[in-house]
Amino acid sequence: MRLPDTLLDEIRARLPLSEVVGRRVTWDRRKSQPTKGDFWACCPFHQEKSPSFHVDDRKGFYHCFGCGASGDHIRFVMETEGATFPEAVERLAGDAGVQMPARDAASEWREEVRRTLGDVVALADRFFQQTLRTPAGADARAYIERRGLSVDTVRTFGIGYAPAERDALKRHLAAEGIDEMMMVDAGLVIRPDDGRPGYDRFRNRLMIPIHDLKGRVVAFGGRALAEDQQPKYLNSPETALFSKRMLLFNAHRAREAARAAGSIVVVEGYLDAVAVYQAGIKGVVATLGTAFTEDQIQALWRLAPEPVICFDGDRAGIAAAHRAIDRILPLLESGKSFNFAFLPDGKDPDELIRSGGAERFVAELRASVPLNEVLFEREIAGARVDTPERRAALEKRFDELIGQIRDERVARGYRFAARVKLQEAMHRAGGEAGGRRPETRQGGGGRRGGRGGFAPPEAPSIALVSAPPAEPLELERLVLGLVVEYPALIDRHAEALAAAPLQNELHRRFRDALQAMSLEEADMAGEGAPAAADAPTRVDGQFFSLLGEVHGLEADGRRRGHRLRGRFPILAFHPSEDFVERCFIHFLGRLELKAIESDLDAAIAAAESDLTADDWERIQALQHAVVRRREDIAAEERNFSDEIRSIRNAYGSGSPGLDADTGSP
């Protein structure tokens, strides 16, 4: 039902935005002026210590000057509570005392059907839970014990048991006065076409209720308990209550945890989700046996900007990841993407947790791979670029894929990354054609069986570098590595990057080559030319040697990011691009500080032999600059500490054994 604009205007007029936002933040008394409808607070969307989040009651609008989040009443409820648009309007209307418009006759009838079916499903849910505790549920309880599920977990998820009898549920519901046709409409009973009596859809199965976002049971998933029983997992059919294309299992429990942590984990099965939840990672959901749909992708983004999808590391898991990417690609937006964790040895999350504990699963989450890397690996792996025709075919394929991305800012980043990947492939092909086996450096990420070619950082569970490097050479490589991983930084901070005081000549040449490639790509995109077409900038083997040093690409093409994550291990937790950008600016500031310190040392050394008044003024000015910069950098690092803690918590690092320091900028 379309809501009239007058309803939304009335809600905004009756309910001050500060009242809605005030439930989630604490207003800064020094900056806020309530009488003028002007409020300031620390942003609820990113961690900060200085209030940069502004609410203007007169305009009914909020904006964060730190992360850029902005919107009105409805947007705020949707973003902070993971609510859909109708849900947000309904909640705000109740708070504002505004009457929702009456539904038309058809809408009223559909709502009545939903309420009635909901009552039927709720009765079935109670029946399954009660049956689990009876003698008939002994095998189901034994299975629960083998799976290692606690009593609290069984109670939290409302797990039950459907007895093996043909019509046990049907008879129970009939005794409650439920018509058989209602049981069929609710997906609980199957009525044969030949006129035989209806029978229970779920028999001799462990029953897991599926809820909508309001926490109402709308369907069930049944796990077979007999070895020869097929299918192994059985879901309710599509009903007026349940659409598996739109729902995510456990989303109603996970959304608050996901909002607090800034991340959500996606697994394939509901029992996997139950196991992950029990292990302490509350922000977890599961798909319901379907390929990713647009509705599910958008629902996941309402929970977190970069969900981590867990797949088995076998061929089927890799294929599922590739199918998911094809669905996601057209929907990508600035700040919204996915990461992929490929689990080893054919294990699912439940098996991994039972064999290695929560820390083993969290280690795999930390080793998850960004969507763009999985995409490029899929296209580059096995591709031959040793002739102009083959290279053109690969370029065309990249053009077609990136052309699906509707967000031009994201598409441009992908085009730049594609150019780098294509030149990497050409460099490798040139080395192999010349009969030279590319040299492998120590410490590079290697391939691991069953992982689709993606390997995690070595010793990913705890052994993380404690802080970004302090040495100028390593700090320069960290800055350049971030530019390769996040090419949008080149455009947004072109002047600062060009002026960065890089001491190493090769680093300066590397930076200049990257900026030239970015400018050429922008020019070609503006002219409508193919992004991967031949361009003046051509880089030699030394470029790729240095790329390996600053970013982790090995000469034999193994995956990128190992050295970058080693220098700045918080990247293993996939922080937001906003966080990375602020860290990048911070690192540029540290480089500038080191340059000023070097100038100061040189000035003092020169003054030892002949000190003039001008020299003394210059030394004092440099000393003051060093003190100010050190104070600013120290303050920034303190501000980053809370954010880093929140990012780590998103991956369950509060679990026992996961207390490794990930380092602050």
Blueprint of the fold:
Blueprint: H1 5-14, H2 17-21, E1 38-41, E2 53-56, E3 61-64, E4 70-71, H3 73-81, H4 85-96, H5 105-132, H6 138-146, H7 151-157, E5 160-162, H8 168-175, H9 180-185, E6 189-190, E7 199-200, E8 205-211, E9 217-224, E10 233-235, H10 251-261, E11 265-267, H11 270-278, E12 284-286, H12 294-303, E13 308-312, H13 315-328, E14 339-343, H14 349-366, E15 369-370, H15 371-380, H16 388-402, H17 408-433, H18 472-485, H19 488-492, H20 494-499, H21 505-527, H22 541-551, H23 562-567, H24 577-607, H25 613-650
Parallel strand pairs: 11-12, 11-13, 13-14
Antiparallel strand pairs: 1-2, 2-3, 3-4, 5-8, 6-7, 8-9, 9-10, 14-15
Pfam families: DNAG_N, Toprim_4, Zn_ribbon_DnaG
Organism: Pseudoxanthobacter soli DSM 19599
Region (Disordered): 428-458
Question: What descriptors fit this protein?
Answer:
665 residues; DNA primase DNAg catalytic core, N-terminal domain; 5-stranded mixed β-sheet; DNA Primase, Chain A; 4-stranded antiparallel β-sheet; alpha+beta; single chain
Structure description:
The chain is of the alpha+beta class and 665 residues long. It has helices at residues 5-14, 17-21, 73-81, 85-96, 105-132, 138-146, 151-157, 168-175, 180-185, 251-261, 270-278, 294-303, 315-328, 349-366, 371-380, 388-402, 408-433, 472-485, 488-492, 494-499, 505-527, 541-551, 562-567, 577-607, 613-650, and strands spanning 38-41, 53-56, 61-64, 70-71, 160-162, 189-190, 199-200, 205-211, 217-224, 233-235, 265-267, 284-286, 308-312, 339-343, 369-370. The chain has 4 domains: 5-96, DNA Primase, Chain A, CATH 3.90.580; 105-235, DNA primase DNAg catalytic core, N-terminal domain (Alpha-Beta Complex), CATH 3.90.980; 251-366, Dna Topoisomerase Vi A Subunit, Chain: A, domain 2; 376-650, no CATH class. Helix content is 51%, strand content 9%. Helix 13 (315-328) links the parallel strand 13 (308-312) and strand 14. Helix 16 runs antiparallel to helix 17. The protein starts with a helix and ends in a 15-residue tail after the last helix.
